[in-house]
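Re: your question from the hallway

Yes, I did run it. Sequences:
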Amino acid sequence: MTDTTEKAAVKTATGAAPAAPAPAPAPRGTRVWRGVTPWLFLIAPLALLIVFTYAPIANMVAYSFTDWDGVSPELHYTGAENYTEIFTREDLFRVFFVSGYYLAASAVQIVAALYFATVLSFNVRFRNFFKGVLFFPYLINGVAIGFVFLYFFQDGGTLDSVLGLLGHHTDHAWLGTPASANTSLAGVSIWRYLGLNFVLFLGAIQSIPGELYEAAELDGANRWHQFRYIIAPGIKPVLTLTVILSVSGSLSAFEIPYIMTGGATGTETFVIQTVNLAFRFNKTGLASAAAVVLLLIILLVTWIQRRLVPDDKVDLV
Amino acid sequence: MNRRHTLALAVAAALLIPGCTGTGGTTKGADAKAPDDPSKVSGTIKVLTVRTDLVQDGTMKKYAAEFNKTYPKVNVEFEGLTNYESEVKIRMNTENYGDVLLIPAVIKKSDYPRFFASLGTQAERSEKFRFTDFTTVDGKVYGQTTNGGSPGFVYNKRVWKEAGITEWPTTPAEFLAALKAVKAKTDAVPYYTNFAAGWTLTSWTYVNGSVHCDTKATDKLAEGDPWAQGADLRVADTLLHDTVKAGLVEKDPTTSNWEESKPRTAKGEIATQWLGTWAIVQFQAAAKKAGVNPDDIGFMPFPAQVDGKFCAVVSPDYHQAVNVHSKHKEAARAWIDWFTEKSGYVRDNLAISPLKDAPLPDVMRPYEEAGVRFIEVDDTKGAQVKNIDNQSEVGIYAPEYRQNLVDLARGARKGSLDSFFADLSKRWAEARESAGS
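Structure:
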C-alpha cells in the first residue's frame, strides 16, 4: 500500500518536473520580462496618477511661491511671502469656525450610519430596500443636491410644506442667519454622505464571521452585547478611517455651501475662500499657498489622530 | 527597497517637470487688418461667446449665414461658454482660445497686446465708435464692444401705477416712499434683491457716475474713497441697505431665484429690480411666455438728479477681440466689423449701438422724453480700480460685499452701516497705497 503510493508519487513528480519551469535556471529574457510585466500593468494608472494628481500638486506648490494672477504670462518669485500673509491674516482662519458645524454634523452622521448599518446587518424585513434608500443620496451629483435643497429650504418650500402638514407652521428663513444657514447646510451634508459611511460600516460588519453571532447567542448575549463585544471591535479600522475622512471632509467642505449660498451669510468655508481668492481676486499665488496650508492641516490632524488611536490588528477569534 | 527607489525617482521626476511653469506666448503687437476684398478672405474661425442661448436656438447660425453673403469663403463656428470668465481664463494660458473672443475681465489691460491683435488706432476708431478707451493700450484699440447698455431699474408699470406713482422718483428718499406705497397698496414685492444669484447685486456698482452725473467717476474710485459721504457707491449702497431694512424686499432673500423673478416681475408679483437695459428684452420675453402684456415692463434711472435732470451712464458690454495667435486674423477681423455694424444684434437686443451716429432704441424713448442726460464715464483709470479692488479683496465687481450689506440690513450680521462702510474704506485705502498710485 505505502509502497505503491510512494512509487506513484515519484512518478508524478518526475513526470511533472520538465513541464514546470524551475525558478532558478530560467533564461535571461524571461527573467527580464517577469520584472517588467507588473510595471507594464502599472503604466496606465501611474501615468494617470502622475499627470492628474501629482503634477498639478507640484504645480500648485510652485505657484504658491509666486504672485501669479492665474492668466498673465508674467509671474514673479516672491519667496514665502504668501505663506507669511496667510499666517498673519487672522480673517483667513476665521472661516474654520464654519467647519465646526460640519464636524458636529459628521459626528451625528457616523452615529446614525453605525446605527443603520447594525440594524440592517441583522435580518430585517425590506432590508435591501432600506439599504438602497440610505445609499441613494450618495449617488446623486453634489451640484444637483445643492439645487434640490435650495427649493427645499425656500420660503414656502418643501420643508415648510411638510412641517405645515404636521401642523407646525413656521415662518423661519432656513438660510437666513449664519447659525441657521450653517446648520441647514450641515444637515444637507449629513443626508448626502450618510450613505457612504453606512456602506463602509455594513461591509465591515458583514465580513465578521456568522459563527460568532451564533456562539454569542448560545452564550445568551442580546443584540446590544453583540454590538458591543463583536461588531464594535470588529469594525474599528473602518471606524478610524471614517473619522479621518469626516474630519478632512469637514475642513474642506465646499460643494454644498458653494452651490447653495455661495458663501453668503457667514457660510464661507476655507475652500470657498480659496476659490474666491484665486478666481475672484486673481491671487492665484496666495490661493495656492492657502491650498497647501489646508493640505498640511489635514495631514497634521490625521497624524495626531493616528497617534491617539493607533491602528492595531483586530483579532476577534 | 530597490523598487521603491525607482518609484520615488519616477515621482520626483514627475514633480520636477512642471516646475518650469510655462511663460510662453511672447508674441506681441500683431495687427488684425480689415480685409480689402471680402470675396477673397477664407478660413474657419471659432467665435467664443457668452450667449449660450443664442448658440442653442440657432440665432448665431443665422447671423453667420448672413455674414457669408458678404464673406462666402469664411466658415464661422460658435462656442457658447456658460461659465465664460473662468473657462476662458484657463484656456488663455494656451494659444488656443478661439479666433474671436470676448475680453474677459480678468486680463490686465497692460497685457492686452500679448493676447489680442490690435484693431487699429484709437484716433481712427473713436471717430466712428463709442467706448474705444475701454480697450485702448498705448493708443491702439484691442477690442470692439458688441453693444452698449445702461444700468437702471426694471419695473412693472402697472403695479407702480396701482400704487399711485406715475413720476420717476428723483431722490433716494422719494424712491423709498414709492416702494412703501407699492407695499401698502398692492400685493407685489416692492423690490427683489436676487440675493442668491449674487451677480444681480453686483450691478449696483454700475450706479457709479449716475448720482453726480460725473464722467470722471472712475477716477474718483481710483483716487478717492468710494464710501465717503455723498460718494456714488455710498449713496447706492445706502439706498439698497435702507430698502432691505425697511422690509421692502422679498421675505427670504437667501433663497431668491433669478429665473423665476423674470415672469414674476412681468406678472406684477415683483415691482422693481435694479438691473440694466440688457435685461429688458429678457423680461419682455418672459412676459410674452407668461401671457401678460410685455409693455408693462418699464425702465427707470437711478433716483438722483443734477440740475433737475436724470443721468444715465452708458457703458460697453463685453468687447470682441481677435486672438493674437489666430491663423485667420483677417477673417476674424471681418467678423467683428460685420457683427458690430451690420448684424442687427443691437436692434435684436434692444441695446444701445456702439456706433456713434446710431439712434437710441425704442425702449429708451421715455428717457428721451424725460430729458435724461446720457454720459460715458471715462475709463482711463479702470485698470487701476480693478487692481485696487483685487488687492483689497473688497470686490466691487463681486457679489460678496453687497450680500454682506443685505445681511447687515436684515439683521443677519452684526454691526452698523457706518462701521461697515468704514471697514470698506479702510481696506480700499490700504490697497490703494500698496498699489502705489
